[in-house]
Design a protein that fits this description.
The protein has helices at residues 44-55, 89-102, 129-137, 139-149, 178-193, 218-227, 238-252, and strands at residues 22-25, 38-41, 77-83, 109-110, 119-124, 153-159, 165-173. The protein is an alpha/beta fold and 264 residues long.
């Protein structure tokens, strides 16, 4: 479900450096039939807007609200816990392998024992989803969250005062079809890694809840690459992000080249 996005760019006096998302490509190999295409070239402003919108805030706060960005400050270990009637374990591991390959700074690995994991991915049936949330958060919080968002998946992230993520638990329904599962798997891992918010106005991210994507987009991969660059740190404020991010984007070559003025 993709909402159309249109932009009109007027170049006045040939001095404005402007670029809208461009180079639209089909969904990558292995994506589900009908998966939406993606834009693959973005300006620095477009990357910064997404990073700021998605790294700060979330749908559900329990306890003090972190003032800075959140991320893991050590290699990320993930355990997959299967309690569903449909076997999605191999598919979930393929999703994790995709993240590990495309965002190597995560230093992501899969472990067998949940006690050794930084992220637990719990696969379960839809009928068990409300009870799992209630067990994790209590009846009042779970009921309010379900009534407000009607979720098919959810992630809880626990972080320290400095923004370093200590542990995340992801709940994914497995018996609503492969398209729902795949979309939830990619969507919720973005939350678990530190992109905690949603943005209904952003037409490129999987974290726009009006879109069903089901793969790691170029845009979201760029945001995670920025989040896990060594120059980014847990707890960075919006002001610090605005000051530091353009340099990181430039040195990583994540933004499309700026349009040149005539005569340059």
């Amino acid at each position: 479900m993709t909402r159309a996005f249109a932009a009109v760019v007027v170049l006045l006096s040939l001095t404005v450096a402007a670029l809208a998302a461009s180079d639209k490509q089909p969904a990558p190999p292995g994506a589900l039939p009908g998966a939406p295409p993606q834009y693959t070239r973005f300006s620095t402003a477009e990357l910064m807007r997404g990073f700021l919108a998605l790294s700060f805030g979330s749908d559900l706060h329990i306890g003090p609200t972190p003032r800075g960005i959140r991320r893991f400050e050590h290699p990320v270990r993930v355990a997959v816990i299967d309690n569903g009637s449909v076997d999605r374990v191999a598919a979930m591991r393929r999703v994790l392998d995709d993240y590990a390959r495309q965002v190597p700074r995560l230093r992501l690995s899969v472990v067998a024992d949940p006690a050794d994991a930084d992220i637990e991915v719990r696969l379960l049936d839809e009928r068990d989803f409300p009870g799992a949330l209630e067990a994790a958060f209590g009846a009042k919080i779970a009921t309010t969250f379900i009534a407000r968002t009607n979720p098919q998946c959810m992630t809880s992230v626990k972080s320290s005062a400095d923004g370093s993520i200590q542990r995340a638990v992801t709940f994914i329904v497995v018996d609503r079809g492969e398209d729902v599962f795949r979309d939830c798997a990619y969507h919720e891992l973005l939350h678990a890694f530190g992109l905690a918010n949603h943005d209904a106005r952003n037409p490129w991210t999987t974290l726009n809840q009006s879109r069903r994507v089901g793969y790691l987009t170029v845009y979201d991969r760029a945001l995670l690459t920025l989040l896990y660059d060594p120059r980014s740190r847990s707890g960075m404020t919006p002001a610090q992000v605005r000051a530091r991010l353009p340099g990181i984007i430039a040195t990583l070559g994540l933004a499309a080249p700026r349009l040149r003025k005539v005569g340059q």
